[in-house]
Amino acid sequence: MKTRGLFSAAVLAVLLVATAGLAQAELIKEVAVGTRWKSFQLTGDKDFVGTITSGAVDERTEWYPTNFNMLFVLCPYGGVSLEYDRFGATMEKDGNLYWNTFTLGLNLRHHFKQWNLAPYGVVGLTYNSPNFEENNWWRYGWSGQAEFDAHMAAKPANVDTLEWMKSGRVRNMKTDPALGFTFGVGLDYFVWKNVAINADVRWNLASTDVSYTIVSDSGDTLLRRDFSYDLDTLSYSLGLRWYF
Fold this sequence. Notes:
Layout: H1 2-24, E1 30-42, E2 57-59, E3 67-75, E4 78-91, E5 95-109, E6 117-134, H2 136-139, H3 145-153, H4 161-165, E7 169-175, E8 178-190, E9 195-205, E10 207-216, E11 221-230, E12 233-243
Antiparallel strand pairs: 1-3, 1-12, 2-4, 3-4, 4-5, 5-6, 6-8, 7-10, 8-9, 9-12, 10-11
């Protein structure tokens, strides 16, 4: 995994330098900005250590655009794209895993003006920033939501809420940033000269390193597990692009 990360970082640096050089050389023919709505599914191993019911993971599809993209057309047959996307998954009932994905891609494309179509293929590198947002009952060591709610309902008025939440242990899930790859195909259908409906199918491959710990209230580590978790996804997206 470290080898893949170093290779990805090296290629990413080369692409960034090349893009900057092309811009300075005034080789960018067109610029497009767009946004997409998507549906996706996790395609890797869903066994997230620390989840009360292992493997019970549901993708969180959000009903607003989560992909924002820019395309720099360099020639009639290709360009470079920059993208931001957001993914999320519910880990049973103990919390949610979210990750932001930044992509630098190479696009092989051609605009068939007689048909108002511009099909393309894309391959690129991604930087993924994951974060686990745990529910209070899980973080403070309780066995379930019902037990936690019953305990909180019995809290005396003169007791601090954070102190009352404690069960004698605290769970923590730390996720690391991850480099990865993306590849896919798409199509721009021009409804006006400078406005296109964009359809995109994308495979993202990445894996984050995770540290799962249980610590006592006194600070002693009761359990630590280090593992990797797949952020692999298959996405279907639909959106709009404006060309300038």
